[in-house]
Amino acid sequence: MKQLSRTLTLATVALTLALGTAFAQTTPAAAKPSTQAAKPATTAKAPASTVVAMKDVPAAVNDAIKAAYPKGTISKVTKTGDVYSVAVKDGKSAKTVKVSADGKIQK
Questions:
Q1: Half-sphere exposure at residue 2, Cβ-oriented, CA atoms within 13 angstroms
Q2: How confident is the prediction along the chain (107 residues), in pLDDT tens digits per residue?
Q3: 87 bridge partner residues
Q4: Sheet holding 83-90, edge to edge
Q5: Among 37, 60, 65, 77, which has the minimal tally of Cβ within 10 Å of its Cβ?
Q6: DSSP annotation of 102
Q7: Would you say the pTM of this structure is higher than 0.85?
Q8: In the 3-class helix/strand/coil scheme, how is 58-94 assigned residue by residue?
Q9: How far is it, in rounded angstroms, from Cα 99 to Cα 88?
């Protein structure tokens, strides 16, 4: 009985190795994991945002925020291009509102 069990075990191992090798040889290259690192796509960098002091915020931006959030307080203003991102705290909620330099709130 032990001899039969050992023979079956050896046959199973041999078959597993044979099938594994055969599968590896017939698997298309696209299915195999790549060992090369992917190159990052070349894209234009977005303009960096800069923090703006309250005294440098245009009056149109300040007026638009005050009109939309009369009880709100401005905690931080950043500028990216011609768009100002204004952090407004209105009661218990805080929001970031994007406003163009001419005072139009963007959605």
A1: 0
A2: 556 566 556 556 555 666 565 555 555 655 556 566 666 666 667 678 899 999 999 999 999 999 999 999 999 999 999 999 999 998 889 999 999 999 999 97
A3: 76, 96
A4: 50-51, 73-80, 83-90, 93-100, 105-106
A5: 37
A6: T
A7: no
A8: CHHHHHHHHHHCCCCEEEEEEEECCEEEEEEEECCEE
A9: 12
